[in-house]
Fold:
Amino acid sequence: MKDLLVLGIESSCDETSAAVVLNGREILSNVISSQIKIHKKYGGVVPEIASRKHIESIVPVVSDALAKANKTLDDIDVIGVTKGPGLVGALLVGVSFAKAVAFSKKKPLVGVNHIQGHICANFLQHPDLEPPFICLVVSGGHSHIVYVKDYVTFEILGQTRDDAAGEAFDKIARAVGLGYPGGPLVDNMAKKGDAHSIEFPRVYFKDRSFDFSFSGLKTAVLNYINIANQKNESINIYDVCASFQQAVVDVLVENTLRCAKNKKLSTVVLAGGVAANNQLRQKMQDECCKNGYKCYYPLTVLCTDNAAMIASAAYYEYSNNNLSDITLNAYPSLKLGKNSVNEF
Ligand code: KG4
Ligand code: ZN
Structure:
């Protein structure tokens, strides 16, 4: 097959990003314009502000990505864009922009599932990685264990029944006064704490399900803080962060390895914003080592939202003839299915 250059566009939450990727694997540019500073003062992403900022940023970000890759739109073979899941107003900026460029430049268009993008981030970093494998996708909005059968076929084996892992990190960070986004801040504080000092609950479901639940853990941490406050006792924030993080990581790792055993697969992959967590990486790596499994995860910059991962996913969908057309829309609750292009 001839070389294929994909322009990826991502605008599902609070990052406007554009990237140029060769053959789904090689990053020529990956420009990320983060809105974190703007949303920080509200303690979370404000959807209306996010959409407006995407509109301001999309043209300069795409121009920058093309310039850094030393390419023009004429060099691009395919345009890939996140079509969901995410904030509808934010998604619509990327989707409308991508449709306009594809239509005016007569380029093929591929709408990409954001969760599939997170999985594909690993293909950008690990040239030897190929499906099938088990992927734990943990981000601010999702916690899924995915059986990646091939580059475009996915089966969800387990998922959260309430809060996503990243959401739990963000809420606990707020409760102990650390700010937004909480994950990296809790991760940092946990390094100085004792992970076994406070016994927080770990939820495993009896029906041999691989699902997660983090809302009970979140309540347990909040109760621990409130009880200490009522008694006028000080809490050790380092220990709270370390013990909370350990509880999340234990469940994520155990369920993921159970899935790998169940599917008789020996490759385990991490993806999504929470995959940047040091304790999660360490424990997954250690447990994989004990079991003789291979463990992969992307660089931090490729764990959080970026357009290179969307370009990679678009490459594989395009290679499987899964194209979108001018009727492409934004799908805020898009699920990851057998064929992610057609399932809404
Ligand atoms: O994938 P992502 O950038 O956006 C979504 O698709 O949701 O993930 C963002 C989430 C946030 O909840 C953030 O707190 C969390 O990933 N996160 C982390 C770490 N870095 C980011 N959670 C734990 N430890 C980290 N080091
Ligand atoms: Zn994401």
Notes: Confidence is low (pLDDT under 50) at residues 338-343. The first strand starts at residue 5 and ends at 10.
